Amino acid sequence: MLAAIRKNMPKDKVAYPRLPSFEVAGKDLKRTFEESLSKAGGKLFDIANKEEALQLFAELYPDAKVVCSATAEWTGNKSLEEVSAPGELENVDVAVIRARFGVAETGMVWLTEHELIVNSLAFLAQHLVILLDPDEISENMHTAYRRVDLQRADYGVFVMGPSATADVGAVLVRGAQGPRSLSLFFTKSL
Amino acid sequence: MKVALFIPCYIDALYPKVGIATLELLERLGVEVDYPLNQTCCGQPLGNEGDQKNAAAAERLFVDNFKGYDYIVGPAGSCVKHVRHHLDAIEQTTDVQSVRKNTYELVEFLHDILKLRDFSNVTFSHRVAVHNSCSSIRGLQLASCSEVMGPRWNKTEALLERVKGLELVHIDRPDECCGFGGTFAVTDEAVSAKMGLDKVRDYERHGIEYVVSPDMSCLMHQEGVSKMQQMPIQFVHIAQVLNQGPF
Amino acid sequence: MSTTKVKVAENAAKFIQQDDIHEKLHDQNLWNVRMRRDTVASAIPEWEELRTLASRIKEHTLTHLDEYVLQFADNAEKRGIKVHWASTAEDHNRIVYEILASHQVKRLVKSKSMLQEECHMAPYLEKRGITLTETDLGERIQQLSGQDPSHIVMPAIHQTKEDIAKLFAEKIGTDPNKVDANYLTEAMRNNARPKFLEAEATMTGANFAIAETGSFVVCTNEGNADLGAAIAPLHIASIGIEKMVPKVEDMGVFIRLLSRSAVGTAATQYTSHFSGPRKGTEMHIILTDHGRSHRLGLEDFWSSLKCIRCGACMNTCPVYRRSGGLSYGATYSGPIGIILDPSYDEDKYSELPFHSSLCGSCTEVCPVRIDIAEQIVKWRKVMSAKKKLPVGLRLAFGVTGTVFKYPWVFRTAEAAGKWALKFAPDALIYNKTLNAWGRQRKLPEFADQTFRDWYLKNRNKEPKA
To answer: Based on CB atoms within 10 Å of each CB, which residue in A47, C219, C446, C454 is the most buried?
Structure first.
């Protein structure tokens, strides 16, 4: 196969281009992030302290039976330590996960197996709560990829709001196969 | 300035008034114009379909007719685009290269070479939509195309903007292809006709009285569809507007 | 695989004529996507520069493809991924089946992969007793319909909500009277859940493969690829060799362009990076050629390998929007299909390059600057040189060539055309070409005198020759 590639490769080689990062000085990253994530279907909240977070959580998810947290900052009622197979998380109503950083341009957050503990948590849960330090927002996809360390993560995902589809009649529906909603709590730590 | 008038075959046979308007307009603007009498077709219908063998003969004749002029001006965007970008079925001699380089579409010639903008001595009191053909937009950059991000321009509209009484209206999909596409119009009848129908309905929704274009070939198709639907829309070449006829 | 010539114009005519709903909705829905693409692209000042950068990165990679494919494979293996090499579609399918069989897999969930479509993998595996579930909603609709995907990123875009409501009622027992998109999506979510949980293996494609880390990137809006990969103990990814990019930072350029071009959103909801198997599971990659190295050697067409499968050219194509993707009878439809498909089978797809009005919009939306319209013209030249022109064109051009070559024949033909039009104005039965014009369009009237006649009379100049 390599021989076939070598035989057919164009003789005129093209040089690798220099990649600018397209940063714009003085941009309000938090505000841009909020606008971007809102467009992608996420909801955002500024959280001052734990009490506020707990109260908001109770308002947002009054019917949640199974809450599973992947961060020591939040205590749910289902522990990831007890999970022996990823499918066991199928009944999780709300998952709480702290993201490493966010991307202003798109409203994405970066999650790896280190934040997720069990990868399926972010996909089987009906609703996601993401904790994000507002100082950890990267400007755009160029700057974001400088922060991504694929050498240290077998799995890493940029999540931009809830799961979505428009495959039925080109109508946008949130909650296709994965989470139906994503709420982002801005907090340095809880 | 030695200028030759290039009247594409279909304009010669079907739209002589466009040829007359173009010639009279150029003469009125003080341009001395020759009309080489042995011209036929630039070969575009053949070249577009990939028929290089048959295109070659037409292209050779085209170059024979038009070599030696400073400018070759034709009232037809798609033909000019073919000459400039695709007249490659024959050997690229110096003559061929200079003919290709010096061939201009009428709006381009008025806008870029004669640098005219002010046609306020012309009156045309109608609701007008401009139809720039795909060849004119994406091949000759007569107007910016909606796909490309950046500055916006429209040379055809720039020439019409100061015409008295003329109301420029933008339809919903101004630079969507109307479906003419040369032989595509007959080999792909159903799709071509549907595209044409969608285009004339767009005019109808916007109450357009006149569609003005630098390209009669698209208009031939659009007018055919519009007439079949018994719509009252008129289709004219920009030369006819700027020359105040003949209509 | 059938080798019958695809009659794309006829198929498109049927798509238009089936009723007053399908083609109209198809056109409008995809035009709306194109408008959303314009809106989001215009918000990025460096949009056109990004397109140039993406094009350069891809051209650089393709002109050094041997190095990058090797680097990718080495790095992936270092991370514990098993790398397989498939030259052909048959190799690809065989390898997949061997892996599945060695793990006693009976139930497989998969996300969308155009490469697996190219290889016709699903029927191959189903024939061998594997229960395969498409998990992308659009693909699932197509699987249940027994149809190929009609669009690269919106596989069921040619179907209406009503069609899907009827299909789901029949196949998964939904209420046939409920045509609400939320209801239908929810129904499929509930139907698919247990399949994810039971699957013994998952398959994905890849949007990009990063040579520097051996990672592959999968973009979805539903999260179905991640759901499959996070649960099943075995993950197999099919990756075309043209998916390579050299570095992680290249992804910044491509992710900014991909979903904006495809559906007009800033990115897909999930951009997932797989760089190694989860603990206790296996990950396999099948690096697949299937005609790619052949295309790399085609001087006029190799740059089509830059394609990142966004479908922007399809959304903008006025012909595709009126034709429906299934009319192209191929894995790839629309403008990109026209230039990819003939490289697999010149006979079967010989009429595809003529199914274009050559408006050129495809070239201008392409995020990696493939000169699609130019390549369509070049494929026409190939078909013409090999005498594969559609019959109508062949006849017409033999005559037309002669007409344009000799001025006097041209004048005579003009006169004859004029005569014919005068005496058979509305019953145009004498010529198939004119008939195809005249059914839905009035013919222009030949003028009483040509411009040339007028000129000779009014400018009073003698003919030079």
So the answer is: C219
Count Cβ atoms below 10 Å from residue A48 Cβ, excluding itself. 9
Inform me whether the C-beta atom of residue A13 falls under 8 Å from chain C C-beta atoms.
Answer: yes
Q: Give the confidence band of B52 by pLDDT, cuts at 50, 70, 90.
A: confident
What domains can you pick out in chain A, each with its CATH number? 29-186 (3.40.50.10420)
Is the omega angle on the peptide bond into residue B246 within 30 degrees of 0, that is, cis? yes
B44 touches chain C (CB under 8 A): no
In chain C, where are the structural domains located? Answer: 8-159+200-294, 391-458
Q: What Cα–Cα distance (Å) separates residue B28 from each residue in B6, B31, C14, C120, C440?
A: 17, 7, 51, 66, 39
**C-alpha to C-alpha distance for A65 and C270, rounded to whole angstroms:** 26
Helices B52-66, C372-385: crossing angle, 10 deg rounding: 110
pLDDT tens across B17-50, in order? 999 999 999 999 999 999 999 887 777 777 766 7
Q: At what angle do helices C161-172 and C137-145 cross, to 10 degrees?
A: 70
B187 touches chain C (CB under 8 A): yes
Note the CATH number of domain B127-242.
3.40.50
Residue B155: which of B144, B170, B163, B171 has the closest Cα? B144
Q: Which of 334-363 (C) contact B at CB < 8 A?
A: 353-361, 363
Q: Which of these, C121, C130, C62, lies nearest to C295 by C-alpha position?
A: C62
What are the residue ranges spanned by the domains of chain B?
A: 3-113, 127-242
Residue C342: DSSP 8-state: G
Cα-only R_g, chain B: 17
Q: Chain A, 116-135: which have a CB under 8 Å from a chain C CB?
A: 118-120, 122-124
Interface contact C227-A177, CB threshold 8 A: yes
**Spatial contact of B105 and B11, defined as CB atoms under 8 Å apart:** no
Q: Which of residues 115-144 of B touch C (CB under 8 A)?
A: 134, 138-139
Mean pLDDT score, B179-190: 90
- Provide, as residue numbers in chain C, all residues whose Cβ is less than 8 Å from the Cβ of B15: 444, 447, 451
Q: Which residues of B touch C264 (CB under 8 A)?
A: none
* Residue B123 confidence (pLDDT): 98
pLDDT of B38:
87
In a mutational test of the A interface, the residue from C60, C160, C178, C185 whose CB has the highest number of chain A CBs within 10 Å is C185
Query: Any idea of the CA torsion for C21, C25, C17, B186, to the nearest 10 degrees?
Result: 160
Q: What residues have CB less than 8 Å from A140, skipping those under 6 apart?
A: A21, A22, A23, A103, A104, A105, C252, C256
Q: Scanning the structure block, which residue is given the tokens 């008034």?
A: B17
Rounded mean pLDDT of chain C? Answer: 92
pLDDT of residue C430: 42
Tens of pLDDT, residues B9-25: 889 989 999 999 999 99
Contacts of C391 (CB under 8 A, 6+ apart): none
Superfamily of domain C8-159+200-294: NagB/RpiA/CoA transferase-like (3.40.50.10420)
pLDDT for position C384: 87
> Any contact of C with A, at least 3 CB pairs below 8 A?
yes
- Please state which of the ranges B120-134, C16-30, C104-118, C387-401 shows the lowest mean pLDDT: C387-401
A70-82 mean pLDDT: 96
Residue A140's CB is within 10 A of a number of other CB atoms, namely: 22
Distance CA B13, CA B211 (A): 21
CB atoms within 10 A of CB C330: 23
C-contacting residues of A 45-84, CB under 8 Å?
A: none
Residue of C nearest to B189 (CA): C436
Q: How far is C412 from chain B (nearest CA, A)?
A: 11
> Which two three-digit tokens encode residue B40?
């036929």
